[in-house]
Amino acid sequence: MRLAEITPHRFRNLSPEAVPVSSGVTLIWGENGQGKTNLLEAIAVLAGQRSFRAAAPAAMAPDGESFSVSGALRRSFDVERLSVTWSAGASRRFRLGEKAVTYGEASRLLPAVFLAPEHRDLVEGSPASRRRFLDRLAVSIFPAAADEISRYAKALASRNALLARIRDRRSELPAGELTAWTEELAHSGAAVRAHRSRAHVVWNQQFKSLSEEAGPAYAAIETALSAGEGTAEALRIACERLLPAERRRGYTLAGPHRDDLLMTRAGAPLAATASSGEVHRVAALAKLAEWHATTQAAGEPALLCIDDFDMGLSPAAAAAFWDSLPKEATAILTTASDPARWRSRATAVYEMRQGSAIAREARRAVND
Predict the structure, then answer these.
(1) Half-sphere CA count of 102, side-chain side, radius 13 A
(2) CATH number of the domain enclosing 347
(3) Which of 166, 250, 307, 338 makes an SS bond possible with 116, Cβ 3.0 to 4.6 Å?
(4) What is the pLDDT of residues 73-85, one digit of tens each?
(5) What is the 3-state secondary structure (H, E, C) of 136-166?
(6) C-alpha–C-alpha distance, residues 280 and 260, integer Å
């Protein structure tokens, strides 16, 4: 299915007006603070993803209480409505028409990949940002991973709550309950690691291919998952071995919540040797590899959304980046620079002004 229209309701500063999404490239331009990034964030939330700015749902609601986003999904002549709603004290709820669906199903219905300046964290950020990337990748390629990731998150939270109570001496060791959550954490954790490992293999094939095309400095980059307990039994044994330290600290010390996606070059961590330009390029290569892997798994081109696509690039470099976009992709690009040079390349152009997307002429549409 292809996203044909997005309609936000009480989402950041966006007006509640439908914004059409054309096949080909839609260019959205405007000054900073007008809502360009907010629109892409709304699409990410509709697609079953978290904010790529790592924002909590309350931060996306103007009143901190609720928001909703809906979108028209088109396949041939059929159109279906996908929506997501959030309210304080509740999790996000997705619907396809009148039918409730999970966030994993929403991801399958609207496969999408996002690239933003924040994705520099894939190279120089904390392991948590790379774990989120791995889990998003796993859900995109293997939809069943969504249930296992949720199951592990629940087991980890519950086990940590028990360990915190023990640390604070608010209760004696609830042996039976702790054993049960350890067992659940071991089984779901092993499943999460298996999904991440399989997703990494698929993604790394695409990443290596793109890196080799980018030049020798990028072709030399190696990626790997950090070593961890690969089976439920190994994770269970690790928890038992670390239990004395866990009781003192009040949280779980083994499991996929401690994993990392390692990037190295010539044996050294990439973040320690890469220039600022290289960090930006590697993040772009990583997300383009995600797009190819997601598209391959979905059997149709995933939506590609790129925020501030030409930020920090020379005109020639920005043009080269535009030319490198997958030709079959439906893409949404934002820019804060003068859009005149891009109008001949875009299918549709919108100006964001105070949260509203205003259609502007795209020369490509006129010439075609």
Answers:
(1) 12
(2) 3.40.50.300
(3) 307
(4) 998 789 999 999 9
(5) HHHHHHCCCHHHHHHHHHHHHHHHHHHHHHH
(6) 19
Report pLDDT digits (tens) over 40-51. Answer: 999 999 999 989
Question: Does residue 133 contact residue 282 with C-beta atoms inside 8 Å?
Answer: no
State the alpha helices, DSSP H only, in the chain. 36-46, 57-60, 103-109, 121-124, 127-141, 145-167, 175-214, 216-219, 232-249, 270-273, 276-298, 315-323, 363-367
What local confidence, expressed as pLDDT, does residue 256 receive?
Answer: 96
Q: Are 113 and 284 in contact (CB under 8 A)?
A: no
Cβ distance 110 to 3 under 8 Å?
yes
**SS3 at position 85:** strand
> For the whole prediction, is pTM greater than 0.85?
yes
Q: With residue 94 as reference, give the H or E element that holds it.
A: strand 93-96
Expressed as residue numbers, the domain containing 347 is 1-111+302-368
Q: Is residue 221 part of a domain?
A: no
Total domains, the chain:
1
* Residue 38 maps to a domain: yes
* Separation between Cα atoms, residue 46 and residue 106, nearest integer Å: 7
Both tokens assigned to 86: 């959030």
Q: Say if residue 368's pLDDT is above 60.
A: no
What SS3 class is residue 97? coil
DSSP 8-state assignment for residue 267: T
Q: Is residue 8 part of a domain?
A: yes
3-state helix, strand, coil in the chain (%, to 5): 50, 20, 30
